[in-house]
């Protein structure tokens, strides 16, 4: 049987997968969550680590794999030839690589204008919904009230599908990767228990089944690392460590069984359980083998003497943990690498362009489709601005829901429409210098018309430029 073709990815989870979402969020519309979480002082990129998260590394790695396959097919080049061409600034290869993707948006990663990775992950997320559940601890009750849940993320995902009219074909070529449950054991509850593990497991299984009903069929569920190995529990009593370990192992065994049961119940679906715990355990027990410092195994990087560097960098060299519970950026990179190695042959990761390329280009080239993309992108950015601390000060200076392509280009390129420009750059209509990158006639024509109308003001005659310099 040939591997399932996968061109789209949906990531669901908590702080381990969060690409900056909680850092960009405002509590009650006015209090930055980056202050509450402390990310503004200890994280350079809004992630719960000292750099990029595993989800960033995976997204970038797959996008680069797309590029290599594309360029290799078109120019008959292998990966080494492509690397040499990039270093040599080969224009034909550079055109494929430059602005093909970026990691600036915490919610999506686009490959040549297509949302190929969607991220529904937030720091603090719990699998089970604990909101309004009483607690003897005021701080835990507050956490239960403000953290997101797996169900809420699923609702956002379904809303996106409806808004963007995601087809059944696209859903069949989407891999849903879900990793949650740790906060159910250590954040919204006083201590890990078997009872809370069961609730989290039930929520994760329900999430898969609900998404199967919506047409998704490819799933990978991560198990939990042994929580007793984290600095948080290494600082506690042996009793607490044993309890954390037994709950972690129970959780993982029941998740394995649940995945097997789901496979039997849904034989036409691909449902995998990724054993991250075995990797974590091996790294902690044999740190030198993996390039980590044995003396730093249980030491969090944040707060250590190595954390404060005069040059402002934060390499966390030799550290497994960033803080008392979250992995360092090196660990995140290692996790993404092992995930890719395990599944690169089970699935055929192929760029969205290769799935019905002619149909996608035809749809993208229509004016109505281009305007729909812009309205969605601009509206998302405007809503994010209005939900920020100074949200009441933000407004739109373009009638974005009714703007023509010419009006969009004029506002973006000549009227200081920063939000408009950011939107069409992210949609891959233009590059960062304002040059057309999505080669479709309606865009090229609209930009040409605007440039013609703006030509005198933008490009005065050569003799006029010379006289002004004199």
UniProtKB/TrEMBL annotation:
<dbReference type="Pfam" id="PF00657">
    <property type="entry name" value="Lipase_GDSL"/>
</dbReference>
<dbReference type="InterPro" id="IPR036514">
    <property type="entry name" value="SGNH_hydro_sf"/>
</dbReference>
<protein>
    <recommendedName>
        <fullName>Thermolabile hemolysin</fullName>
    </recommendedName>
</protein>
<keyword id="KW-0378">Hydrolase</keyword>
<dbReference type="InterPro" id="IPR051058">
    <property type="entry name" value="GDSL_Est/Lipase"/>
</dbReference>
<dbReference type="GO" id="GO:0016788">
    <property type="term" value="F:hydrolase activity, acting on ester bonds"/>
</dbReference>
<dbReference type="InterPro" id="IPR001087">
    <property type="entry name" value="GDSL"/>
</dbReference>
